[in-house]
Every structure is written in structure tokens, then in C-alpha cells.
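pinned: reference chain
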Amino acid sequence: MLTDREIISTLEMLENEHLDVRTVTLGINLFDCASHNPDKVKNKIFTRITHLAENLVPVCDRIGEKYGIPVVNKRIAVSPIAIVCAALSSSQMVDIAQTLNTVAEEVNVDFIGGFTALVQKGIARGDRALIEAIPHALTATERVCASVNVASTRAGINIDAVLLMGNTIKQAAKLTAEKDGLACAKLCVFANIPQDTPFMAGAYLGVGEADAVINMGVSGPGVVKKAIDRALEANPDLDLGQISELIKKTAYKVTRVGELIGREVADSLKVPFGVVDLSLAPTPNVGDSVGEIFQSLGLLSIGVPGTTAALALLNDAVKKGGAFASSRVGGLSGAFIPVSEDLNISEAVRKGYIGLDKLEAITSVCSVGLDMVAIPGDTSAETIAAIIADEMAIGVVNNKTTATRLIPVPGKKSGDSAYFGGLLGQSTIIPVNNAQAANRFISHGGSIPAPIQSLTN
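pinned: its C-alpha cells
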């Protein structure tokens, strides 16, 4: 039970500290839509999604208004299309993506995820067709998001798939050159992809999930920052253990708000409630930044020495507070570091406080990886693949989720600015060591075997 003071502090979060429900994501199982006939597949997909999601947006708006808690994004995640449409060709996969986009517009959701392939151990026919379709599919649609899982702690790293994704990213950037490679902002490459994350671009509905489920993404970087600021203003001598406890209690309140909304949405739609993803997901708005939390903790900027330790403290406290608040915690649950989507982190890149090497280092303790990182347009496909492989290795060896959203911005070089718009924000382009062009390591292909810690049975 919350005390009167805690209730008042939660109301303050809503009023002044950017607390919101970042996304309500309806997961929809499409496996019964499979067919060799692409027209039948498209009709089944359209019918099934419209039937289940037609009331998603009005229900979220009504419940958000009831509690005074805005639900910023309403989204859909579907079963991996590479499996659902395994019998289809690459061009037919593009048609499926356009159907997904049409139905997303029909039910008025922001994004629809699940244009997904799971290739950590090998690439099947449907997987290859989907990956080949990704550049054209993401160029031809506005609301479709794609993800490819190329590695896992159990399977190791599929370097053949990593190389394929390097070329896929380059092609997607080329096709959307006039928009600074925007298609790449809707494509995540994963190790250990969660089956229940509500956040885009990596959301999809896992193979073991129900016919439909509601997953929640709550967020509150501004809330955490303000809590730290207030506490240190009252007592500048707080040690890091006490600050961690404060963050944990704040995450508890944020999680309870998210679960309240999520369960009511699920009840109204008559589908099961899934998980709450606790991730601190920033926006380009002032006061809604993960990067600012590092300054509140006493660092000049994210990226300076001490950043990795501070992020480890933050991530751990958020997870502990959320786990105490709910038994249904899932997804990624921690702190996102999406460069272009966080005004403070984008500014740190511009000033040179943080670069690609430090971003990679801190992914050892954060929730995702190299997220929304704009790189020079002349970065080779082999170098992109090598960057992905490094990030996958961190996830595989540490048995955690890591991912990349790399955007090689056509025609631009390090120090230039890239503009993606809306929640995707803007960023200074980060320099890349392009020496991989003369390095044959990744070009050997094959796979990097699973680490010894995979042998857990």
C-alpha cells in the first residue's frame, strides 16, 4: 500500500516529470494465417489484426484519460513473419509488409513489429526471403519495424547472418538516402532477443506466446532524474548505496502505474495481460533524458570516466524496483541509450564526450546496445558486420540481450548531422574505424560457437 506522501509524489511525477505509459503493445499470433497462397495470407492477416486491434487505441485513450496518465504509443507486435510466411518469396514478403502497414493505419497504431527472422543457428528459406525483403519493405512502409536475431548464448553467433545484415543495412540506407537512411532506424539486429518486449523496433510475439497478449512499456527517465535531484538537494552527502535505494523505490512506483493501466487495457480488450517492460526509454524532449541522469549522479556528461559504473547502478536499481512491484516483468527492462532519441546523449556525441567505443563498452551493463547510432555513409558493409559481431559477442558471453540499430547515413561524414524526425530525433554522426575493409576476420563466415556457459543442463 502507498502512503499519502507516496501518492502525492506519484501525482507530481505525472504533472511535472514526464511520467507516462510509453507504449501499450498488443501481441497477435499469426501462425494460423500461414498459406502457400500470398493473397490468402494477406487477407487472413488483415482480418485477424483488425478484429483484435480495432478497439486498442480508443481503449488506451479512454483508460489514460480516466487515470490522467497518457499512453503515448499504441503498437502491435506479431508472430515472426519469416515463420508465418516461410513459403513465400522475397517480393511476396514485401507485399506482406505493405499489408501490415495498411492494417496498422486502419487501426491507427504507431508501429507494427514482427517483420522478424530468428537465424541464430542457421538461415532457413523463409528467413532468407524475409531478410532480402527488409530494405524494400522498410522503404515502402512507414509503420513496419523489422528485427533479426543473429546470435544467442545457446547457439553462438551466426556470422553468415551477421554479414548478410551488414549488406542489408547498407541497402536499406541507400534506398532511403533522401531521409538520411531512415529505413535503418526501423531495423534491429539482436543477440538473445526477448519474445515479449513491447518496444520498437525489436518487438515481436514469441513462438510460445498466446493468441493475443498485452505487454506494457513504462518509462520515466525524467522521474528518476528529479528524484535524485531532490534527494541530493536535501542531503548532498548521500552515498551511492542510498541513491540506488532511491532509484529502486522510484522504479517501483513507475512500474505499479504501468501495471495498473496494462491490466485494465487487457481486461477491456478481453486478452491476457503479459508483462511490464521497465525500460527507461528517453525521448528527444528536454527533461525526458537518460543522459541527464548521469549528470544528476555527478558526472560532467554521459561518456566520461565513471559512466559504465553509473549505468550499472541505474540498471540494477531499476530492475530491482520493478521486480518488487510486479511478478510480470519482462522485455528488456533497464536503461536504453538510443543516441538520436535522447537530446542529452546526442549533445554528448556532438561535444565529443562519447564515441562508438564507449557506447559499446557501456552496453555490457545496459539493456540493449548500439541504439540509433548514426555512422558515416561510406562505412563498408564488412565494417558494419564487424561492429554488429562485437555487440553480439557482448550479449552472448554475458547471457544478456544486446542489439544494434546502426544507420550509415548516405552522403554524410562524421561530424555532420542526421535528422530522422519525431521520436527518432537527430544526431551528430559518429566516426567509425573503417579498417575492417582490410581485415578478413568477419569475411571468413561460418559461426562463432556458443560459449561454455551455454552448457547449463
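why pinned: The first strand starts at residue 20 and ends at 28. The chain has a mean pLDDT of 88.
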